[in-house]
Automatic annotation (TrEMBL):
<protein>
    <submittedName>
        <fullName>ATP-binding protein</fullName>
    </submittedName>
</protein>
<dbReference type="Pfam" id="PF01695">
    <property type="entry name" value="IstB_IS21"/>
</dbReference>
<dbReference type="InterPro" id="IPR002611">
    <property type="entry name" value="IstB_ATP-bd"/>
</dbReference>
<keyword id="KW-0067">ATP-binding</keyword>
<dbReference type="InterPro" id="IPR020591">
    <property type="entry name" value="Chromosome_initiator_DnaA-like"/>
</dbReference>
<dbReference type="InterPro" id="IPR027417">
    <property type="entry name" value="P-loop_NTPase"/>
</dbReference>
<dbReference type="InterPro" id="IPR003593">
    <property type="entry name" value="AAA+_ATPase"/>
</dbReference>
<dbReference type="GO" id="GO:0005524">
    <property type="term" value="F:ATP binding"/>
</dbReference>
<keyword id="KW-0547">Nucleotide-binding</keyword>
<feature type="domain" description="AAA+ ATPase">
    <location>
        <begin position="182"/>
        <end position="282"/>
    </location>
</feature>
Length: 333
């Protein structure tokens, strides 16, 4: 499916608006022209009449060629006269004809039964704007992910926090650069405020720019939607489950912070398992440890994650607090 039903509906409404606006504007200009040049309206009616007469001549089937040639000549004469009237009153053909945003599909979204490029671009734009409304997407790019907030102190000879986060940043960049519908799954773990959401949204932005349908949300928001739609009749809407299962990239933030119920737990597992079976990429972030996740869900859930997700352990101290107070690991302000 790629995008949610809501995104498709928004795009359809926008295309309808563009098409209607162009036609209304052209009609207003045509009415204004007729007001100062009534003769033009009479000529336009005669032009339409020649087309109707041509159709009738074909149906009659008597001396069709001669009739069509006569009507064609009359039509061309009327067209020239109409153009002269336009010019005489300071109008052009473009002034009285609909000026569509897209000339190819005339703002219908389709050309010869296939989705127009303008329609696909509009879907991407709406998906991006929707995502931006519920997340700090404009602040979340790879370029503004600073490693200065992570300590470069090594403990027991292992990687420093900064080295670990540089590895994760580079990995996520490559993932975004090479993103495709079978890009694989990422599992971000670590305490709050370490950049998990930031990098998730940076990947989302890159995927949307490539034309993929991305769904981002917290586990809590998804759980609320699923619970609300649990008893909804099909005709009343409710496509969260389909959306989460079918989108090109699903990003579940703050897994484990959602309302806890056997229904929600089962639904989350089914969504993750379905996407694994369909080889659709998913990014999950959580503040919980693997032991806490196993306790909250079950061993089978953790086994699926460990077997089919690349785990990215985020390290450091809350960088959001450091940004707020302008401090850095080395004490520089």
């Amino acid at each position: 499916m790629g995008y949610s039903r809501q995104v498709y509906l928004q795009a359809e409404n926008e295309l309808n608006k563009r098409h209607s606006d162009a036609q209304r504007k052209a009609q207003r200009a045509l009415d204004a022209f007729y007001a100062v040049c009534p003769e033009a309206e009479t000529v336009r009616r005669r032009i339409a009449s020649t087309a109707s007469q041509a159709a009738k001549a074909v149906l009659r089937g008597t001396d069709v060629r001669a009739s069509l040639e006569t009507l064609k000549a009359e039509n061309l004469t009327l067209q020239r006269h109409f153009a002269e009237l336009l010019a005489a009153h300071g109008y052009t053909r473009e002034d009285i004809e609909p000026q569509y945003v897209c000339k190819k599909c005339e703002d219908t979204g389709y050309v010869d039964g296939r989705m127009c490029a303008c329609h696909r671009a509009l879907l991407r734009q709406i998906a991006y704007e929707n995502l931006n409304r519920i997340s700090p997407l404009t602040l979340s790019t790879f370029a503004d992910f600073s490693l200065d907030y992570y300590s470069d102190e090594r403990v027991n000879g292992g990687r420093s926090d900064r080295e670990q986060m540089r590895y994760i940043l580079d990995y996520c960049r490559r993932y975004a650069d090479n993103f495709s519908k079978d890009a694989g799954n990422l599992f971000f773990t670590g305490a709050t405020g370490l950049g998990k959401t930031h990098l998730s949204l940076a990947i989302a932005s890159a995927a949307i720019d490539k034309g993929y349908g991305v769904v981002y949300g917290t586990a809590q928001n998804f759980a609320i939607s699923l619970e609300r739609e649990r008893f909804t009749r099909p005709e009343e809407g409710g496509d969260t489950l389909e959306l989460l299962s079918d989108c090109d990239l699903l990003i579940i933030d703050d897994l484990g912070m959602e309302i806890s119920s056997s229904y929600i737990t089962a639904m989350i597992y089914n969504i993750i398992d379905t996407r694994i079976m369909l080889k659709k990429p998913t990014i999950i972030s959580t503040n919980l440890s693997m032991q806490e996740l196993e306790k909250r869900y079950n061993e089978r859930f953790v086994s699926r994650v460990l077997g089919f997700y690349d785990r990215m352990p985020f390290r450091g101290k809350d960088i959001r607090a450091k940004r707020k107070f302008g401090s850095r690991p080395d004490g520089v302000r």
